Amino acid sequence: METRTVPAHTPRTTRNESITRWSRSARMVLGIVLAVVIVTFAVSAIASFAVPTPPERVSLIHWSLFVATFMQYLLCLFFISFAAQNPRSDNRGLWIAGMVLLPWGILPVYWWAHVWNAPYVSDPSHDYNVPGGQLTPQAD
Known about the structure:
- The chain is 54% helix and 0% strand.
- It is an all-alpha fold.
- The chain has a domain at 22-118.
- The chain crosses the membrane at residues 28-51, 63-82, 94-113.
- Keywords: Membrane, Transmembrane, Transmembrane helix.
């Protein structure tokens, strides 16, 4: 029995960078989810302070605030992983610190600058080198 081995190619993007392979619609869905979570958090927080409830009763407003806070935490982790692997950013530490300290303001800015406007390399007819990455030749 003969075993064939195929040489491994170097990736087109640097280690584990996945944003460049996302389609425009996937990037848009991430932006919409981010906007919905931020708006839900803001509206729930304002409403929970405006409408006092007895301590023994938890209202729908408080539950939506809890869910939005949890979702904001998950989105923050998601975006921190993007910032940590982004070869095109010179200020990774600054982006990550901003995401931790002020996520409602920094996450939309990071989404616009580094997710929505990231180069797109999934289409072989339009592939080009990603700054900081290496382009591998296309398979025949």
